[in-house]
Amino acid sequence: MAQKDYYEALGISKDASPEDIKKSFRKLAVKYHPDRNQGNAAAEEKFKEINEAYAVLSDPEKRKKYDTFGSSDFHQQYSQEDIFRGFDFSGTFKDMGMGGGEDIFSRLFGGAFRRSGPGCRRSPQRGSDLSMEVTVAFREAAMGTEKLVAFRRNGVREELKVKIPAGVDNGSRVRIAGKGSEGENGGTSGDLFLEVKVAPDPVFTRDGGDLFVERNIRFSEACLGTALEVPTLEEPKRIKVPAGIQPGTKIRLKGCGVKAPGSNTKGDLYVKIGIHIPDGLNSSQKKLVEELAKAGL
User: Rg (Cα) of the chain, in Å, rounded?
Assistant: First the structure.
């Protein structure tokens, strides 16, 4: 999420008084008001920006959280609807001799605007969702694991042990119900979403539910065939390599891959065969290779 500097938006310092904040906002609001800048998209965007800044900095509690946690963490806790909740649009612009507050904000902010002035019944509001990235090892992602995660919720640090289901991959999202921001007026809490990042593995690569591993054999083994021990996620397995195998051939081990989340169906493991070519030959090896060449091999 892009960083938002509300102080910069209003052209004030971080130690500005409430009076300074209001004075700067009023000046900018008049300058960029849509009624005075019809058809000017840049002015409209600036108008939205300064009103969002004022809605935060004019509220002591929201300003304190913004100053304490910074823009990124603040916006994980507050949605746009949260920012404007309780902000008296009509009263603000009426004091400035300008009308149309609610109509303007309904048009500019859409669903983020809710009437919440005196005498209006405030409906329950669901808390906003939170998200954070969690890194897991390759085998943990394939087999499933538990992780202790720390996050901020409504300005308070919390720790939670969460289950990472088997089969998650890069970009998977794990939902923790009810661990987002708390709701208001009896509304339910939002959810916490874990964005999974899987660390690479020195042995395996992965494509969906299938795993891939590479193994090199000698030229003689490729010609005559051999047996080969290969790793799997659980225990090594021994496979037969047929005589005459060609470089790049993949041998499939059915059901030795990764199972899909929420399922017992597993992908496959593919062993890609390579031929090892020595960097150098001693005299006897060279002689043998020359004999093979004469024999047409």
Answer: 32
